Amino acid sequence: MEAPRRLGLMLLLPWVVCGCFSLLLLLPPVKSMCPEPCDCQLQQHLLCTNRGLRAVPKTADPQGILTYSLGGNFIANISAFDFHRLAGLQRLDLQYNRIRWLHPKAFERLALLEELYLGNNQLVALAPGTLRPLAKLRILYVNANEIGRLSTASFTGLGSLVKLRLDGNALASLGEATFSGLPNLLYLHLESNHIRWLSRGAFAGLAKLRFLDLSGNQQSSLRHPEIFGPLRSLSTLLLAGNSLQQLGGGLFQHLPSLAKLSLSSNRLTQLAPDAFAGLGALKELRLDGNLLSHLPATLLEPLRSLEALDLSRNVLAALHPATFGPLPKLRELSLRDNALAVLPGELFTSSLALQRLELDGNAWSCDCRLRGLKRWLGTRHSQGRLLTVFVQCRLPPALSGKYLDYLQDAQLLPPDGADCHSGTSPSPSLPPATGQWPREQQWQLILAPEGFGGNSSRSPAQGGPRSLPSASTMRLLDAQEGLAPARGSGRAEPTPTASLPDLLGSSRPPPPLAGPAWPRRARKHHLSPSAAGAPLVSDACDFNKLFLCNLSVEAVGTSSVTVRWWVRPHRSPRLLGPVRFRLLFDRFGAAVKFQRFVYLAERSEPAATLRELRPDTPYLVCVEGVLGGRVCPVAPRDHCVGLVTLPNGGAVGGPDHQLLTLVLLAVNALLLFVALAAWVSRLVRRKMQGRRQAAPVHVRQMYSTRRPLRSMGTGVSADFSGFQSHRPPRSAVACALSETDLIEFPCERFADSSSARRGEDHLLQQRFAD
């Protein structure tokens, strides 16, 4: 019974399978949610970007779609039914199409839409009421279209909008209350249009606006403060790239929160003294690329919080000494590419926070009027509070191309027909006959750079130019300027008046100064008695320039170098301590210079030995002074020496490494050639031997006609000798085969049969004998 039942089931199984397939074929087809040219791999994201579409594709079940991307296609129109089934859509991207027309009811069902991107299309207008259903819209891009006019009804109903981009259109004006329906707008982009006229109420209703970009338009003047009056929360205003020629006074007085203002690349020739009134919170001001020739002295007074000021690419020829006085927080200032020739020394004295100053690109006249600026720069650099400032001289021709930092004060001569206010003659209240010189003339005696080259012969009384140290050194001198009263007298000790023409120019130590010792105060800044009468120095840059010289190499080895330098007599305040020295050395061609430093102990002799160097390697060694724990921020390029360590062995006339390398390469090539030739010859020999061993065996006779077929034995070998009982075992090396053999083999193959197996062969012959 079991077997017939199984047979029946096997017969019914094909019918069941065919019936199931028939039912599947009869069912109606299920439509896919994703249109054929689109991609739906991301959940709730319908991606149809760059598919060559000319119309919005239809979807079967669009209820779960939150993001719909249709950018980069050829869609020209949006009908009323393209998105009517996408009620849950939150983000719609229609950028980079050819849309010229939007149906007024195109977005009627998109009440949950939050982001709409219509940029880079061909829209010429936004029909009133088109965007009204989008009550939750927060981001709207309509940039790079051809919209030429906006009205109040264009943005009606967009109470939640936060960011609006209208840049790159053809707007020529903004009427009254254009954006009044956008109370929560924070970012508004109107750049790169053709706006020439702004109504006084153009920005009414934008009390929360923080960012407004009007750059790249065609505004020629802004006079009415009421234009920006409603923007009480505005923090960034960009007006660059217009054609502004005039700014009305108090134009920005209603912008108390403004932090950044850009007026770059306009045609401003002058500014009203109250142009920036009310901008107490401004931190960044850009005025570069205009035609400003001067600035009112009180222009920047309201900008107490200003941190960055850009005045580059103007035609400024002079600045009032109090121009930057009201800016205590100024950190960055750019004056490059102007028409400046000189600047007063007190121009930046109030800018204590200044860290970056750009002065390059001006036609600087390096004369005595720049001494104050030079002192201020030296002081700030020595304190490490200012980045490098490049002041390149244009005049006089003798100093053209040189930088102010590397000039001595004596080189900054008075210009023709001008008088420097620093004083060039002895003070009449302190004539030379009294034994005292004014403080500046004391410094001329001590630090006159004309004696630096040994060519100076003028004394202070002859009206020669003077060289003053940096401001930090002058301040220390001021602290010590009080003269200690002499014992038993009520008058001060006179200062030294001896002439020092060769103090700084001679290579020998100068003779001791005649006259009393250098004055000092008993309560502060005590000076070393051993250095009495020597010039006072408190700035590392002054020390490097004036007192450090004659760096030379004494001994060079394979791994060590000894360098020595000379220091002119000097003295330093006890508060700063004695001058220490630091050596900077590194190999030539290194990516980062001066990675290794060697600090010498205090009061050590001016010499040092560098060890653990590489043999036969070029090095650059520089020396600089360390005063009070500070070094000069300018690299000591004037006190450097180049050297090359000796190769291994310490002898200059050692073997030529280049020739030795070439010889080794030649030997290696020869050995390689010999090895290759041996390998090739061996390969050829093996092939020849293989051909000889594979020679065919010659068959003389296949069948015998003289013996019966039953005589199958052969005597060619001991292994086969047992099959022929009538023939004795072969004992001779010679192999004489007869015609009775069926097959004849070469005799040499069987000539080596050993005699040790003859007995075994005999037994086999007897066993298989007929």
UniProtKB/TrEMBL annotation:
Intracellular or extracellular location(s): Membrane
Residue intervals of the LRRCT domain: 362-416
Transmembrane segments: 659-681
Assigned GO CC terms: extracellular matrix; extracellular space; lipopolysaccharide receptor complex
Region feature (Disordered): 415-438, 450-470, 483-526
Gene Ontology BP, a term: regulation of cytokine production involved in immune response
Membrane topology: Single-pass type I membrane protein
GO molecular function, one term: lipopolysaccharide binding
Residues making up the signal peptide according to the UniProt record: 1-32
SMART domains registered for this protein in UniProt: LRR_TYP, LRRCT
InterPro entries from the UniProt entry: Cys-rich_flank_reg_C, Dev_Immune_Receptor, FN3_sf, Leu-rich_rpt, Leu-rich_rpt_typical-subtyp, LRR_dom_sf
Keywords: Disulfide bond, Glycoprotein, Immunity, Inflammatory response, Innate immunity, Leucine-rich repeat, Membrane, Phosphoprotein, Repeat, Signal, Transmembrane, Transmembrane helix
Name of this chain's protein: TLR4 interactor with leucine rich repeats
Organism: Terrapene triunguis (Three-toed box turtle)
Lineage of origin: Eukaryota, Metazoa, Chordata, Craniata, Vertebrata
Annotated gene: TRIL
